[in-house]
Design a protein that fits this description.
The complex is a heterodimer. Chain A is α+β, with helices and mostly antiparallel strands. Helix content of chain A is 34%, strand content 24%. Chain A has 3 domains: 47 residues, Uridine Diphospho-n-acetylenolpyruvylglucosamine Reductase, domain 2, CATH 3.30.43; 116 residues, Uridine Diphospho-n-acetylenolpyruvylglucosamine Reductase, domain 3 (2-Layer Sandwich), CATH 3.30.465; 108 residues, 2-Layer Sandwich (Enolase-like, domain 1). In chain A, strand 12 and strand 13 form a beta hairpin. The N and C termini of chain A lie far apart (51 Å). By secondary structure, chain B is of the alpha+beta class. Chain B folds into 2 domains: 76 residues, Roll (Ubiquitin-like (UB roll)), CATH 3.10.20.30; 70 residues, DNA polymerase, domain 1. Chain B has 5 helices and 5 strands, in the order E-E-H-E-E-E-H-H-H-H. Chain B has a 5-stranded mixed sheet with strand order 2-1-5-3-4, with helices on one face. Classes of the chains: A alpha+beta, B alpha+beta.
Chain lengths: 283, 158
């Protein structure tokens, strides 16, 4: 394997100092499940690996009065063992249970899945329908960014070279409690999604009070389907032809490509089917 | 490359090593400590042959940097038996013919012991779900699942 430098800072501030110093050369690692294969493929070269896996302040799940906070170092396995996640953000819990395999879940982290910014990212899709906010820090400043504004292209995010994610938060709310995640893969284990969907829904007096829909692997980034959301809002849940019309709108709003896993045409078609399955489960 | 000093426990023994930043745990275990039970399969975390227990949890040693195990506790397949007495899971694999070429077996057995610890009464579906990242190219899955199931039953009655 190609050589690299390795540092393991012990506090968040040390990491931020290193990021400021090393700039683009720094590559933060924790679970290593994406970075090591990328180093092997020479997609990552001459970097300084900044191992943050010992920084406890960046790990863990806490439930505050009206929100749930997830440390970026929290592993996917920790999500599947969390009552707060299964209760307050079930859509994320479901996605964690379908993530890779139980061994990888012990290492892979939520923050790592987000910053890798794969269009297929299994954590991004449910966190989009939970309308998660990322806490982002550099040594100079802190900012909060909505997850839907975070991704800008395949493997590209708005993170600057001196910044890191220090927290992921979502509200404790009715809509966030009622969610469904479905991943379509070519097999069960270790599958990268052909397409994935998350839907969160709040129905009041038989009307769709709030709805959020996100999909993975059907666009250059994980996306929110805001046109479909707008179409569904305030409609009667059981109104005639609603789902059929929404399915067509889903197929219009996605923007998939063809790759080794599936054709663009298939992805567009199956996006509608996944929407129907998820929506029916929630109503 | 500057070497890093690490100290860890492997199969109950304390070890001190100087490792390079890009040394993978699997290579240290096999080439420096001569514990060749753990297998190097795909090298990219797809096959599970390199599975070891790190602080009791199964992890892929091909996706773990040796430098990151400082202060931790590792169990490899060599650490399961007590003297000549095989671990119940090892016995169950032998009894059920769950070993063919044997390449996946160390990873399979370690993952299976972790499953049993988490959920001692798992159904066949739960076993298959938990074991889904450990691949067997001989496709001896039926015997492997049978072995794990029989081990559960034995543990219950013992």
């Amino acid at each position: 394997m190609v050589p690299f430098k390795y540092i393991s800072p012990k506090t968040k501030n040390e990491v931020l100092e290193i990021l400021k110093e090393e700039k683009v050369k720094a590559c933060i690692v924790a679970g290593c499940t994406n970075v090591l294969p990328n180093i092997r493929d020479k997609k990552i070269v001459s970097k300084v690996l900044v191992d943050i896996s010992d920084i406890e302040e960046l790990r863990g799940i806490s439930k505050e009065k009206d929100k749930v906070c997830i440390g970026p170092l929290t592993t996917i396995a920790e999500l599947t063992n969390s009552e707060a996640i299964s209760k307050e953000g079930e859509v994320l819990y479901q996605a964690a249970e379908q993530f890779a395999d139980p061994i990888v879940r012990n290492n892979a982290t939520v923050g790592g899945n987000l910053v890798t910014a794969s269009p297929a990212a299994d954590m991004a899709v449910p966190l989009l329908t939970l309308d998660a906010i990322l806490k982002i820090e550099s040594i100079e400043r802190k900012r909060g960014v909505r997850l839907k504004d975070f991704f800008i292209g395949p493997e590209k995010t708005i993170l600057r070279e001196d910044e890191m994610i220090t927290g992921i938060e979502f509200e404790s709310s009715n809509i966030n409690k009622n969610g469904c995640f479905i991943k379509l893969g070519l097999r069960k284990a270790m599958a990268i999604a052909v397409a994935s969907i998350a839907v969160n829904l709040e129905v009041r007096e038989n009307k769709i009070a709030q709805v959020r829909i996100a999909m993975g692997s059907v666009a250059p980034t994980p996306i929110r389907l805001t046109v479909v959301e707008g179409f569904l809002k305030n409609k009667e849940v059981n109104s005639n032809g609603l789902i059929e019309e929404a399915i067509n709108k889903v197929r219009e709003e996605v923007d998939p490509i063809s790759d080794i896993r599936a054709s663009a045409e298939y992805r567009r078609y199956v996006s509608g089917i996944l929407f129907k399955r998820a929506f029916n489960k929630l109503t | 490359m500057k070497k890093i000093e690490i100290e860890f426990t492997i199969n109950g023994k304390k070890r001190r090593l100087s490792v390079k930043p890009n040394d993978l745990l699997i290579n240290i275990i096999r080439n420096d400590l001569f514990l060749t039970g753990s297998k190097y399969g795909c090298g990219i975390g797809e096959c599970g042959a390199c599975t070891v227990l790190l602080n009791g949890e199964p992890v892929l040693s091909c996706l773990t940097l040796a430098a990151t195990v400082d202060g931790k506790e590792i169990t490899t397949i060599e650490g399961l038996a007590i003297g000549d007495e095989l671990h119940p899971m090892q016995k169950a694999f032998l009894k059920n013919g769950a070993v063919q070429c044997g390449f996946c077996t160390p990873g399979m057995i370690l993952t299976a012991t972790a499953l049993l610890k988490e959920n001692p009464n798992s159904t066949e579906d739960e076993i298959r779900d938990y074991m889904r990242g450990n691949l067997c190219r001989c496709t001896g899955y039926i015997q492997i699942v049978k072995a794990i199931k029989s081990c559960e039953n034995n543990l219950e009655t013992s």
